[in-house]
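Two records follow; treat each independently.
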Amino acid sequence: MQTELKPCPFCGNPPKLFGKKIREIDGETMRVMPERTEWEVVPYCQITCVLGHAFSAAYGIHGAGGYKTPEAAIKAWNRRANDDKG
């Protein structure tokens, strides 16, 4: 499994991997659900690189929930349309 993040395909700046703790309460029983971690890749693109931010949002890599493992988030970010290796 690949663990290194590729740079932004548009501006070349490196992204960062973040994990965030999620705590939820069941609305019916008011029980605290088990805590979990969601992972996402956040692009740190140049201010003029609109495509890097659009790419990550369009593919659900950043800002649309999270991945269950760091490896899944990395694989999603590193995936390129012309690269079948992921």
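The next record belongs to a different protein.
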Amino acid sequence: MLSLLEHLSPHARVATAVLPFVLAVVARIVLGRNGVTRAMISLATMWFVVNVLMAPYSIGMRQDIDELQSMFRTGIRR
């Protein structure tokens, strides 16, 4: 599963993180406040947080972070 997510474009990654939350909010608006919609929002929020916290561990994000660190290091030495 993790290797599948690494092959997604950045826009697709954002969509996989945000879309479940948006759908849960829409369900809450349509269905009202009940136990199912509360659970959906809780799960969608956890999914979003996990995606945000795991993003730095992807290969592309690690490369971007390394590039930023090297830019700061060379900027400090000047």
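Discussion point: The mean pLDDT is 80. How would you locate this feature using only the token line?
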